[in-house]
Design goal:
The chain has helices at about 45-55, 125-130, 135-145, 170, 190-200, 225-230; strands at about 5, 15-20, 65-70, 75, 80-85, 90, 100-105, 105-115, 120-125, 150-155, 165, 180-185, 185-190, 210, 235-240. The chain is of the alpha/beta class. The strands form three sheets. A six-stranded mixed beta sheet has the order 1-2-15-7-3-5, with no helix packed on it. It has a six-stranded mixed beta sheet with strand order 4-6-9-8-10-14. It has a three-stranded antiparallel beta sheet with strand order 11-13-12. A hairpin with a 2-residue loop joins β12 (about 180-185) and β13 (about 185-190). The longest helix is centred in the first third of the chain and has 14 residues, at about 45-55.
């Protein structure tokens, strides 16, 4: 099983983190190693995949919190594992609960506040980015858990890069022109940079931000991409947890 890790989280022995890829359990096309029940894959296979991935991280599947992502700015404070309902960001101060983000192009962001021992996981596609769900998650960590930005460490997982993300004028009009690339009548949106700028605007030190260089669209042998594969795309999971 091929799992992406975070160098920035490896500094903390209490943090468990991994991001899945297409490669695991010798799964075949179209969905490969898929961790979502919503794409048309066999439910029993998805269950096996989820269990195997969690186990590779040193977790039991019963310890994971899953949200039903709806491209919102809803943030859930997680008190126990399981399916928590509709939201696109989760925060917890509980040990041994994994926060899972499903992704196949959208920007997945994972945060650890090292002094207060708080973790967060954010799913930010263009809708969530426009609604500033990442900034709102950081603010909630500060307001509700007394976190400080200077103590936050962040991993931004693989996502679709600007040159592969064409959008229409209706979407483009929601963003500052600095995030738009206009070529031959086409418009390309930089969702990744918009999220990075939210991190920096909230005064998280740049040295404490790790950004995956992988583009989900381009890494066809490694990563799921809805923009590339459409209804045949599986979904990855990124999971962050704190252990005792």
């Amino acid at each position: 099983m091929e799992i992406l890790r975070s160098k920035i989280f490896e500094k903390f022995s209490e943090i468990i983190f991994g991001f899945s890829t297409k490669n695991g359990l010798n799964r075949k096309e179209p969905f490969f190693f898929n961790l979502s029940f919503t794409v048309g894959d066999d439910e029993n296979i998805v269950k096996e995949n989820r269990i195997a991935f969690a186990n590779q991280l040193g977790l039991d599947i019963s310890q994971i919190a899953f949200q039903r992502q709806i491209h919102s700015d809803i943030i859930t404070v997680v008190e126990k594992p399981g399916v928590i309902g509709e939201s696109d960001a989760m925060i917890t101060n509980k040990k041994n609960i994994g926060l899972a983000i499903s992704s196949a192009d959208c920007t997945p962001i994972f945060i650890y506040e090292k002094e207060k021992k708080i973790i967060a996981a954010v799913h930010s596609g263009w809708r969530g980015t426009e609604k500033k769900i990442l900034s709102k998650t950081i603010h909630k960590m500060i307001d509700d858990f007394s976190c400080q930005a200077k103590n936050m460490f962040v991993y931004v997982g693989p996502s679709i890069h600007q040159k592969n993300y064409e959008v229409g004028e209706e979407v483009a009009s929601l963003f500052d022109e600095k995030y738009l690339l206009r070529i031959d009548g086409k418009i390309y949106l930089d969702v990744l940079q918009a999220n990075i700028d939210q991190l920096l605007a909230n005064k998280i030190p740049q040295t404490q931000i790790e950004i995956s260089s992988l583009c989900s669209f381009e890494e066809k042998d490694l990563l799921h991409s809805y923009r590339r594969d459409g209804n045949n795309s599986g979904r990855a999971l990124g999971i962050i947890a704190m252990k005792d």
